[in-house]
Amino acid sequence: MRLSTVDLQKRLNANKSKKMPLWQTMVMAWLAGALFLFALAPYGIWPLAIVSPAILYALLLPEMSGKRAFMIGEAYGMGLWCVGAFWLYTSIHDYGATPAWLALIMIAIMGLGMGLFHGFLALMFNRVVGKQPLSFAALWILQEWLKTWLFTGFPWLFVGYAFTEQRWLSSLAPVAGVFAVSFVAVLFAASIVELLRRRGRYMIAPIALLVVSTFLWLINPQWTKPKGTPDLSVSLIQGNIPQDLKWLTEYQIETLKIYATLTRTEWGRDIVLWPESSIPMFQDEAVGFISEMVKMAKATNTTWITGIPYRDEAAFNPKIDKYPPFYNSVIALGAEADGMYKKQRLVPFGEYIPFQGLFDILPNLAGSQDIMSYSRGSDKQSPLHVRGHNLGTAICYEVAYPDTTRKNALNTDFLLTISNDAWFGTSAGPLQHLQMVQMRALENGRWFIRATNTGVTAIIDHQGRIVKRAPQFERTVLRGDIQARVGNTPFMSMGNYPILIIIALLLLLSYLGKRSTTRARLGQ
């Protein structure tokens, strides 16, 4: 029987009249997004990483307008970000001196903006592709991937991170990265909804992928292997400098004294690592102190690695530049050490001002001429050379970028990351950050050493397991040994291309299938 467009629209309108009010559906979606926080560190209730997207999938299944679908997706994304990234409130309110009411509004605006990713996911699921688990999971990975580069990127709150320590699923990470883990988890979530709707055929794909993942976990393939050199002894220094004092000029000397004192007993270890900007001044302002530390390091055959702001006077052209370029950097000094790494992924509004050129044509803005931004390091930097090894580096939140860390890990023997998570106090932010480092270690098959100002300072092995960690908010030293490893994981060699090609094919097939079904329904 042929069905006219008018008759089809009448049926759709009849179905719409049976739906719950939009605001109720949006509240459910918002709560489902907020629920996801508890799947991540420090809570670690990983089944919620399946429940949360399953609820969104179920809410989007009924026939509805594109506008309604978008609003439901937007509500989910807003709940996800307002609750999952609420740690931003600490930096905005406590350290940014922003009134509480305004900080809350800023968090809501951030959630509204980041919610657009899930809003467009829902819109495309409703209007462009077929409504089934494979297309939903593919769209989910598309929006996660877009978050790694669109508008400079904010790659946080990925589903895959909830499974970092669940080996039966995270074993996919060295093969195809965190997006592959997210894909299987979301596919499984959507398929469970279909199973409850008595459409069990949709369970075939997720079960097959889970079998593959479990098989990898059981056979435990060693994608990388020990280099064959002795383990290196490391000392990670955690200064626990209060954030409200860290950058005060009058506290700079005290900061240097704290780190020098903590390190006094560590000279003689293979590597001593200080956190991000542990020297709170430019390198040309701390020449005397640096020389003294290098002297101690060489005398005790120790490699000293520290985070420090680096000002490049040699690149300064007063005819075209207001200031010399300066970088958030890591420098390796002392015995058997050479190299500097300059941070590539800068924090918008924290380390640089997006579209800063606008301020040059708006000279009447208060303070516009005094705005300074860190410069971005090249994406083709050589690794640090430390004790006969190549050392890959990631500074602070750039470790959240899978592809950036992957590129920095190529041709290296182990990895380091330094950070200052004091900005986020006792919130979940620093622990979510640590979980990402675990995933990067797993993806690249490399040991990670992580030194931070207030925590979490940790040593992580090539399978993403925390070998040792220091307590947060204590002035302490974490000692341990690390292993150099060689070889590439499949993810290191191919990056995100395999999973992106798969989701592109799935979305194309789903789109073509939807068009074919629609034409058949209309009798064309």
Automatic annotation (TrEMBL):
Keywords: Acyltransferase, Cell membrane, Membrane, Transferase, Transmembrane, Transmembrane helix. CDD domains: ALP_N-acyl_transferase. It is a multi-pass membrane protein. Its EC number is 2.3.1.269. It is found in: Cell membrane. The chain crosses the membrane at residues 21-39, 45-62, 69-89, 101-125, 145-163, 169-190, 202-219, 494-512. It comes from the Bacteria. GO terms for molecular function: N-acyltransferase activity. Pathway: Protein modification; lipoprotein biosynthesis (N-acyl transfer). GO terms for cellular component: plasma membrane. Residues 237-484 form the CN hydrolase domain. Catalyzes the phospholipid dependent N-acylation of the N-terminal cysteine of apolipoprotein, the last step in lipoprotein maturation. This is Apolipoprotein N-acyltransferase.
